[in-house]
Write a structure and sequence with these properties.
The chain has about 180 residues and is an alpha+beta fold. It is about 55% helix and about 10% strand. The protein is built from four helices and four strands.
């Protein structure tokens, strides 16, 4: 797999910092990734049948952004006694968009809705860990409020999508999700 910077200069190492962004309209078949502060494209692509459409879901986009925000907030938590809390914040935050992706790849709306409910549970778990982090002084009240605002929006979107899937009982076009 070859990494190329958006300037088309080859990169020598393959240490990726974080996955982020959208596929550019350049004809590349690949994902956009953040590498040492520059956006890079994976040349051979990561698309698989049925998987690429999860990126079109607004709820996944918001959950992914929230997960990255939670991760950057958790990285600022210091202290050996808070290692478990930091880990749980990252794990529960990553679980929200990951379950959306996994559910989107299932057959049928009932299975998709089940995974969305798991995402809602992970969001509730993240909220608890954030409250704990705020209350023990591991994160600032402003970091808590910012992350809580994103989390609330994601949770409302998840509930709305589950309600829509339960009501219709049949496949809903991806653009309306």
């Amino acid at each position: 797999m070859e990494l190329r910077a958006t300037s088309q200069r080859p990169l020598r190492t393959a240490k990726l910092v974080a996955v982020s962004g959208k596929l550019p309209a350049t004809g590349w078949d690949g994902m956009l990734m953040l590498y040492q502060g520059r956006y890079c494209q994976l040349a051979n692509g990561c698309k698989t049948a049925g998987m690429s459409d999860f990126r079109k879901l607004k709820v996944w986009q918001k959950a992914h952004a929230m997960s990255l925000h939670a991760h950057s907030t958790a990285r600022r938590i210091r202290g050996h006694e808070l290692v478990a809390l930091r880990s749980q914040i990252v794990r529960s935050a990553m679980s929200v968009p990951a379950n959306i992706v996994e559910g989107r790849n299932q057959k049928g709306d009932a299975a998709f809705a089940r995974y969305l409910r798991i995402s809602i549970g992970s969001a509730a778990e993240l909220e608890y860990h954030m409250i704990t982090a705020r209350d023990v002084g591991a994160i600032s009240p402003s970091d808590y409020l910012s992350l809580y605002t994103e989390l609330s929006e994601v949770r409302m979107m998840l509930h709305g999508l589950v309600r829509n899937l339960d009501r219709t009982g049949k496949d809903v076009p991806a653009h309306s999700r």
